[in-house]
Amino acid sequence: MRTIDLSPLYRSFIGSDHLASLIDAATRAEKQSTYPPYNIELLADDKYRITMAIAGFSKDDVTIEVQENTLNITGTKNGEEKKADERKFLHKGISERNFERKFQLGDHVKVLAADMENGLLHIDLERVIPEAKKPRQIEIGSSRLLENK
Q1: Could you give the CA distance from residue 57 to residue 92 in angstroms, rounded to a whole number?
Q2: Which residues form the SHSP domain (predicted)?
Q3: Would you say residue 20 lies in a domain?
Q4: Fewer CB under 10 Å: which end of the chain, C or N?
């Protein structure tokens, strides 16, 4: 009996938990879509970068949307289909097919910027924890100060 593969739930969590990436590495399924290939980098404690290899796509072909905690990156090639049919390839190794890639973002992870250079799409992210959620130090004797006010 096979165990249940939970890797689709954990494979694209960013800013959530380091454990999710460890589980992903340990349970990665072979049949998952690998197009387009991507990297997720940890730049600093709360800063991340997603880099996707999208050769053949221009800025106009790519849409980046954030809705709730989901980052959705879509690439669509519209007018190139006729040009590709007219050309005759001896070998076609650059896949310019349409794609959609979704990433689940952790709480308080914000998309800062997106840039495309040399066929690579870079998306910078940062986890911004609100002041109310950050730990604060309580001084001993602070209850007396509140009573006097």
Answers
A1: 16
A2: 29-143
A3: no
A4: N
Tens digit of each residue's pLDDT (9 = 90 or more) over 65-106: 999 888 999 999 876 555 556 778 888 887 778 999 999 888
Please report, for residues 1, 103, 131, 134, 140, the alpha-carbon distance to residue 71 in angstroms, rounded to integers and kept in the order given.
35, 5, 24, 25, 44
| Contacts (Cβ under 8 Å, ≥6 apart) of 11 | 24, 28, 32
Give the global pTM: 0.64
Is the peptide bond preceding residue 135 cis, with omega within 30 degrees of 0?
A: no
Q: Summarize pLDDT for 115-137 with one digit per residue, the tens.
A: 999 999 999 999 888 888 778 88
143 part of a folded domain: no
- Flag whether 93 is in a domain: yes
Question: How many C-beta atoms surround the C-beta of residue 118 within 10 A?
Answer: 6
Q: Which two tokens stand for residue 131?
A: 């002041």
Report the distance separating Cα 60 and Cα 46, nearest Å.
30
